[in-house]
Amino acid sequence: MNNNIWLGRYDDGAIIKITSTDTIQYNSENGLPDGAIVDLQLDNEGDLWFLTTDGHLGYEKDGHFTWFPSLVETTAGAFTFDKNGNVWIGNAYGVLFLEIKNDLIISSRQFNKYDGIDETETPDKKIQLTPDNRILVTKNSTNAYFIDPDKIIANDEKPLLLISDITGKDNATLDSSWYSKTSGFFHTPEDLILPYKNNNLTITLKTIYFSQPDSIRYSYQLIGSDENWSKPQYTKFIVFTNLPAGEYTLNCKAISVNQNESEIVSFQFTIQTPWFQTWWFYTLTVLFILIAIYLFVKWRLLVLQKDKDRLEHIVETRTREVVLEKEIVQEKNREIMDSITYAKRIQAAILPSYKLVKEYLEDSFILYVPKDIVAGDFYWLETIQNTADPKSETILFAAADCTGHGVPGAMVSVVCNNALNRSVREYGLGKPGDILNKTREIVISEFEKSEEEVKDGMDISLCALNLNNLELEWAGANNPLWIVQTRGGKTELLEVKADKQPIGKFANSTPFATHHFQLEKNDVIYIFTDGYQDQFGGDKGKKFKASNLKQLILSLAHLPLEKQGDELAKVINDWRGNLEQIDDICVIGVRV
User: Considering only CA atoms, which of 546, 542, 547, 552 is closest in space to residue 531?
Assistant: First the structure.
């Protein structure tokens, strides 16, 4: 076999392969069974076969081992092959013959003293094939004999199986009132009907078998509980405990060492149904429950009727009170809504009209969407004469976001709007930075009149535009300025950051800066509050964000300003979907 040397170890059941270049050890990880290696042989094709003390026979293919479970549960000592490739194994019973085809056992037979084989030969006997196809068995140098398989008469004896005894729990004798009669040599009960509380049985089996009676194994099948046959065991006792109520048939069989099976012996018995599982018990139980339910329902109906009468009186009284309270609440709501509606008219009155905006900013749009009836956001417009050129005007316009929204925000917006007007009309200021500084001063002064500390104010983006020379001055409190310019066929968005401070009380306030820009024809100015970019929506319910607003404005920059306003309104409505508007929205666009 390629000049390889194979060694089998008795102590740990390992097989060692020694080649010209390497030594390899095989164990259970390569397919070896448990048990000491007692013999190694090469078959007619040069493949390695091995045998363990437990009678497990196996072979090696490409470094992997396959083995067959022991057919006879006894120790084995040696094996050999005959000229047909069949295997002969010496064991404590005698010699085991295995017919093997394509590495599969297709039949087996145990030869023992009843076949003329000396059973006293212990498993450490040696066994080998002679040239005339006889089996030579040697115990030692002075004790040897031949086996000629062709001259041995087959032992086809089948065991005779009997049920010898049937007892109850703890091997107690069965009460004769549980069966009608007995039968058989051992007088076993017939028509056995066990009470439910005595549902334990022990069945004792006996066999008549003259060839190795101690090697008989037993298997049983309990129809009504388990349809499968049990694994063959040497025990003669079959024990059942706590069997459920029902009808059972016990089938038993005995198996000889030569795998000959006895005729199947059957025994029928019944476990009675307990009284609490009988039909009459169920019937009485259901009847009792129905009567109890009926009486309970009748009692509850009487109680409910009394409660109903009492509750009807209470409900009638409370209904009159609720109707009166509802009318009062509705009247209060009407008064509040009338007040808020009137406040809306007042707020609308301080906002520049659409006609006025178009008069000074012809190519423009204002997207103004209050969250509630009144808003904290507002837009503002004012004009001032240029001292250097009386014929030209500077147009002041702004988008402002006051603290809060709804009625509180609207009240703050009135204060802030008035402060802007005073800064321009009363103090004659024209530069955006100076206007914001004075506006902050006026707002703080107004709120300081309160006995409580008021930190409300506004964020604003304020532009001063001269349409004659296209000069733009701008200042911002937290809100930026965006200018979309087209230069050399390329459209870009210029963002100017605002001062990081509000119009209102602030710990580290500084003067607002005025930024100067020289615009060109068709440049577009965008100022806005944070309501548009902070709106939640989309597939994931997230904010719209300033980055998306930039991309949207760049994509719309080529459109007329009114069309841009319509598209911005459509996009934010689609984005919001069914979600609530979270803040006022104000976006202003002006093309110069």
Answer: 546
Name the residue among 464, 468, 459 with its Cα closest to residue 533.
459
Strands (E) in 499-582, as ranges, are 515-518, 524-528, 536-537, 542-543
- The SS3 of residue 231 is coil
Asked if 6 and 15 touch (Cβ cutoff 8 Å), the reply is yes
Please tell me whether residue 313 adopts helix, strand or coil conformation.
Answer: helix
Query: What's the mean per-residue pLDDT of the chain?
Result: 84
Q: Cα torsion at 404, 408, 411, 413 (round to 10°)?
A: 10
pLDDT at residue number 124: 58
Share of the chain above pLDDT 90, in %: 33
Q: Which residues pair with 525 in a beta bridge?
A: 483, 590
Give the separation between CA 188 and CA 267, rounded to whole angstroms: 10
537 pairs with which residues across the strands? 542
The backbone torsions φ and ψ at residue 116, rounded to the nearest 5 degrees and listed phi first, read 95, 10
Give the separation between CA 416 and CA 410, rounded to whole angstroms.
Answer: 10
- Pick the residue with more confidence: 490 or 128? 490
Please state, in angstroms and rounded to a whole number, the distance separating the CA atoms of residues 378 and 413: 7
Q: Band of the pLDDT at 120, cuts 50, 70, 90?
A: low
Of all residues in the chain, what percent are helix, strand and coil, respectively (each to 5)? 30, 35, 35
Is pLDDT above 60 for 142? no
- The helix (H) or strand (E) run that includes residue 90 is strand 87-91
- E-state strands within 169-264: 181-183, 188-190, 192-194, 201-208, 217-223, 237-240, 246-255
Q: Is 268 helix (H, G, I), strand (E, B) or coil?
A: strand
pTM, 2 dp: 0.47
383 forms beta bridges with 395
pLDDT digits (tens, 9 = 90+) for 339-367: 667 667 777 778 898 899 999 999 999 99
Q: How many residues does the chain have?
A: 592
Question: Crossing angle for the helix pair 279-350 and 406-421, nearest 10 degrees?
Answer: 10
Q: Would you list the DSSP string of 391-449?
A: T-EEEEEEEEEESSSHHHHHHHHHHHHHHHHIIIIIT---SHHHHHHHHHHHHHHHHTT
3-state secondary structure of 248: strand
> Could you identify the residue written with the tokens 């004896």?
157
